[in-house]
Amino acid sequence: MDLGEKLALLAASARYDASCASSGSARVSGTGGIGAAVPAGVCHSWTGDGRCVSLLKVLYSNACRNDCAYCVNRSSADIRRASFGAEELVSLTVEFYRRNYVEGLFLSSGVFSDPDIVMERLIEVARILREREGFAGYIHLKGIPGCGEALLRKAGLFADRISVNIELPTSRSLALLAPQKSGAEILGSMRLLGEAESESREDAARLRSTPRFAPAGQSTQLIVGASPEDDRCIVNLAAALYRRYGLRRVYYSAFMPVAPDPRLPSPTSPPLLREHRLYQADWLLRFYGYGADELFEGAESSFAADIDPKCSWALGHPSFFPVDACRASYAELLRVPGVGPAGARRILASRSSRSLRSEDLRKMGIALKRASWFLSLDGSPLREPAQPEVIRASLADHSPPGKATGRPAPAGQLELEFS
Amino acid sequence: MKPGEDSWGRGPGGFILAARDALDGMAGEGPPCGELFAATEARPSERREPDEGEIWAAIGRLRAFSIELYDLCLLSWMSSEGLQPLFLEVARAAGISGSSILFDYSRQSIRLLRAGCARVEREIHRLAGLARFGLRRDGLYSAPLEPDHAILPALAKHFLERFSGRSFALVDCRRRLALLSTEGELRFLAGRGALELLPETTASEAEGLWKLYFTATENPGRLNPGLQRRFMPERYWKHLTELHS
Fold first, then answer.
1. pLDDT (average), residues A387-395
2. Which helix (H) or strand (E) holds A199?
């Protein structure tokens, strides 16, 4: 198999991993080296699915001992198998980088041998890039579950980000669909990565020259809709991962059947709207100050299809509103549907120099169609109260993601704003 | 005045002096609001050849007043939408009322200026990713660009770090301008000299592999070409090798 065929095969095998972020790291190369990692990350292209291409995202090998029902590379699948050599990957990364095609390398792999051996191969590619080529671009390495602690620690010295995929929300589902994987093992790797990261941060505070362990932190991905868990379960899990192991990102990937299997549902299209709602909830956890328990207070355990989770919360808490734009804190403003972080900051900045009128709010980019139900100005509500169902109908976002309506679909790298 | 084009040889120096004058209330009355986007006469500071020391002092003055104002100054200078008179108007108002007005989004001038500058900034960030370099026979990596705004200077730092001392060129084909970095030295070229830095058109092996990769990494189960165009408007496609068969 020539290099082109191998590249096409091992890129297609890796495309189900949603993460492509290249942000969160700052490096510069020394003399004779190449590249620099940019903290904000850079997108280099967008494929026809609307997702950004930031890294050369490939598998080292698509040969795999595991037989995970949802995976295109499962051991029982009848597909061509191939592996890269380390030098091939190094050369592809550097050539693509120089031409400004990518920010760096995202290297994952099927478990073609003992996890330690697979992990060593991935680390070796990153080591050559960093040490021999002086490569200061971005490297994302996949942690192979079950590999030794020392190897994960070593990987973090070369990589900007490491991720171990949790795959499914519960051990029960893992046992059913990915029998060779263990939830305890996956979480153990995450705990270790979290500890190594915070140790390195503490060391760096004492001695600045300490090499940083995976400066862009760790992320993970889970598949939505392959197993019966509800949104409440998934959101609680994500919140716990952020809190306990200091994850930077949880990626949600709508399940797409790759082969008929009696253990799996067979949807005609991937549950993109559900994935979208989970990303919205994830943003609420990370940027809007919501707790996971706040998003499901009643008997509901799945997000509504017609309105986003922030609107759901607002409709369920009429006593919190109206929020007064002239006096409310940043945190209170963020709870108003139609007001995002940028809008809330603008309200605070503008009201320090003049009194606000509703016309000003509109000019600041506040979506008054939604926000006017929930805001007041100096004690006067912007809008007469109405029946909850009337408000709900006006808050509905009817455009499901994935349709070309001009609204963003929920790829991992998108900025989601509730405005 | 089209600062991004006409004042290329001088860089933004003349405009920075005009900004300092506006801030300190030294320039004449600005154009009336209705004519903000009309072509305007050169301001007093721009009539003479700017002196380097004076420009540095003016940069210091603007930055000391507000980093935000200095950023808006450079972005307005690069804009091809005629933002410069509006910027000077805002600088004059900030000189009178203080830097907090730069954040007063209820003012129309601030909203228009910031929206215009945001378009320039977005294009800088976009083209940092969408520039496609070809390797010329003489060993130079060169990228052809056709940006809406005259943003080459804003890309210099990014690509200097990225190329770590290796030679590279960025060519603005439409404005016939180029930025060339050789052995750590940065030069700006205009006219034919700029266009001579364009890459050769013969396809390389790396380009072929990149096209294969780009096709394979797309997820056919989630096609959404509308979103692809939204992030990567078609006017930039001309130089994106992965989109040409």
1. 92
2. helix A183-206
ipTM, two decimals: 0.89
Residue of A nearest to B142 (CA): A99
Q: Which amino acid, residue B133?
A: F
For residue A332, pLDDT beyond 80 = yes
Contact call for B164 and A4, based on CB within 8 A = no
The residue extents of the domains of chain A are: 3-261, 309-395
Among all residues of chain A, which has the CA nearest to that of B106?
A: A360
In terms of domains, do B143 and B171 share one? Answer: yes
- How many A/B residue pairs have CB atoms within 8 Å? 176
As a whole number of Å, the CA-based R_g of chain B is: 20
Q: Which of these, A50, A377, A268, lies nearest to B223 by C-alpha position? A: A50
Count Cβ neighbours within 10 Å for each residue of B24-47 and write b for 16 or more, e otherwise: eeebeebbeeeebeeeeeebebbe
- Predicted confidence band of residue B37 (pLDDT cuts 50, 70, 90): very low
CATH code matching the domain that covers A3-261, chosen among 3.30.300.180, 3.40.50.300, 2.160.10.10, 3.20.20.70: 3.20.20.70
Residue A35, min C-alpha distance to chain B (Å): 4
Q: B-contacting residues of A 327-386, CB under 8 Å?
A: 346, 349-350, 352-354, 356-357, 360, 363-365
Q: Measured between CB atoms, does B219 come within 8 Å of chain A?
A: yes
Number of domains in chain B: 3
Tokens of A147: 């590999």
Q: What is the pLDDT of residue A273?
A: 94
Chain B residues lying within 8 Å of A50, measured CB to CB: 222, 224-228, 230-231
Do residues B150 and B5 touch, judged by C-beta distance below 8 A?
Answer: yes
